[in-house]
Write a structure and sequence with these properties.
By secondary structure, this protein is an alpha/beta fold. It is 31% helix and 20% strand. The chain is globular, with a radius of gyration of 17 Å.
Length: 246
Amino acid sequence: MERPAGAAAPLPWRDRAPLLLGHRGAPRLAHENTLASFRAALLAGLDGLETDLQRTSDGALVISHDPYLHGDDGAPDAFIAKLALAEVRRREPAMLDLGDLRAFMEAFPAALVNLELKTAAPFDDPRAPELARELGGWPEAVRRRLWLSSFDPLQLLTLAATRPDVPLAFLAFDATALALLPSLPVVAVHPHHSLVTAERMSAWRAAGLAVFVWTVNDVELSRRLLGLGVDGLIGDVPEALLAARR
């Protein structure tokens, strides 16, 4: 099997694990996936954050977990993929784009970021090669603090083909998805916390994979996972993660 894309790139978590990452920032302190939420996660003491990438109809890569914008005053929800950036910004003035994320990382030079590439389904688009191309123009000092993840194996394969020079990771919510791992060009797995067992940790370690677990908001659960040797935790509550690591 070909060497995974990004395998030669520096691993952002090397010498810093276990990492504590804010899930979309610190969403219980500020609105998720905004600069305020990102800053709150770092100011609370976390190592970085996890966030999400969508694409507008005119090719802008924007930071949003949901693929749609909620309608106001009874208006229907609208898919971001069907809206131009100007309309997205009109409806959600605080929404960030990929350039804003880069600027944030430059302003916080110790912050690590896991960027989740959302699926292009059901609207096919070239977001994976566009993302790889844009990251190629980032300063190396910023890019080496970033890694990409996705639930979508096709997005990961496309990213690997475009050689983004950043590590790739596979997100998994149920055990059946884990069967895909040996076929994917990844250096890390991001399982839901319910999937993490000592046996799976041994198998992932034997495969050379780093392990980042989501969404972890309980101190005791955090301690158990750290005890199993995970490389990082992703959660909504900075205090719970920090208490577990202490």
